[in-house]
Design a protein that fits this description.
With 316 residues, the chain is mainly β. A hairpin with a 5-residue loop joins strand 3 and strand 4. The protein is built from three helices and eleven strands. Strands 3, 4, 7, 10 and 11 form a five-stranded mixed beta sheet that branches.
Length: 316
């Protein structure tokens, strides 16, 4: 089955973006450097160590295999906020997500100023803006989670890459919905600018998805609040989008905060190699977008989108 997401043009100029890859690296050097850079809780976060990082990631002009663009799926909303913490009080296992953006056409040098956008479902499989869409299986209504999250904006956001090409998000481990495996949606943008708390201008040239190892996801889903969503979870091998390519297909590297207690959270990382000349509409490829069994969005959110989001797009 082939499914595409239609990304409607808005009055805002489409954002300029970079093609994204996983971390498949010649001799494994960039994967190590990217991982270390992504998890450096030091001056690297504010760009002070940019020159050292650039040197360590510029060892090869063919540093990685570019990832194939895939559909943005049925739950995209334009105009997400620029912010590091996207949880808005949503409950779940903490996830610190660090993504390193490098230019795969120029020796894998960091891409300072790239805007990375992510969005994903909550612990029960619900997306903001589409909170009545049925996640499949048996789950409480989204309104029963007791959080103060805005139903139009939770678990969505942008971050701007620092001098090392690194962005960081504080979120929660995503849940799942039928018939998809656990995943995070991703776009990379360049050429725009932060304005009034949103990222405007430029254009997009990569749309992709990030994935989680089955063993870790399945362990997380035995914990509260995930365990309140029962049903058949789709593994990576059976997912309609993930193509089995490991890191180069978006499989995150995860590190437990506390090995004996998964509820303490995880740190996830991946290196995103880019082709600065590529463009992507969001339609992508892949086997499908993963429409839920019922209550699927038909082109508009169930509630009003963020004020800076003039349109929503959907797959059918």
């Amino acid at each position: 089955m082939f499914m595409t997401g239609n990304h409607k043009d808005s009055t805002i100029t489409r954002r300029r973006a970079l093609a994204v890859t996983g971390g498949t690296v010649a001799a494994g050097g960039l994967a190590v450097a990217g991982y270390q850079s992504a998890f450096a809780d030091t001056a690297a976060d504010d760009g002070a160590s940019a020159s050292a990082s650039a040197t360590s990631t510029s060892t090869s002009s063919s540093c990685m295999t570019l990832m194939t663009s895939v559909t943005e799926g049925p739950y995209y909303l334009d105009g997400a906020l620029v912010r590091k913490d996207i949880t808005e009080g949503k409950s779940g296992v903490p996830l610190t997500l660090r993504l390193t953006v490098v230019d795969a056409t120029d020796g894998c040098t960091p891409v300072s100023g790239a805007a990375v956008e992510i969005w994903h479902c909550d612990a029960w499989g619900y997306y903001s803006g589409y909170t009545t869409a049925n996640p499949g299986g048996s789950a409480p209504a989204e309104s029963e989670d007791g959080s103060t999250a805005d139903d139009d904006t939770y678990l969505r956001g942008y971050q701007i890459a620092n001098a090392n090409g690194v962005v960081k998000f504080e979120t929660v481990f995503p849940g799942w919905y039928t018939p998809r495996t656990c995943h995070i949606h991703l776009k990379v943008h360049t050429g725009g600018q932060k304005e009034d708390g949103t990222y405007e201008g430029g254009k997009v040239n990569y749309t992709g998805q990030l994935f989680f190892p089955d063993d870790i996801a399945e362990e997380i889903f035995t914990l509260e609040p995930y365990s309140k969503h029962s049903g058949s979870y789709t593994t990576l091998d059976d997912d309609m989008v993930y193509d089995g390519g490991g890191t180069s297909s978006g499989l995150l590297t995860l590190k437990a905060v506390h090995k004996a207690d998964p509820s303490k959270g995880y740190k996830g990382s991946i290196t995103l190699g880019v082709d600065p000349d590529a463009e992507n509409t969001g339609a992508g490829g892949g086997a499908g977008g993963g429409t839920p069994p019922s209550g699927a969005p038909s082109g508009a959110p169930t509630g009003a989108p963020p004020s800076d989001a003039p349109s929503a797009s959907a797959s059918s």
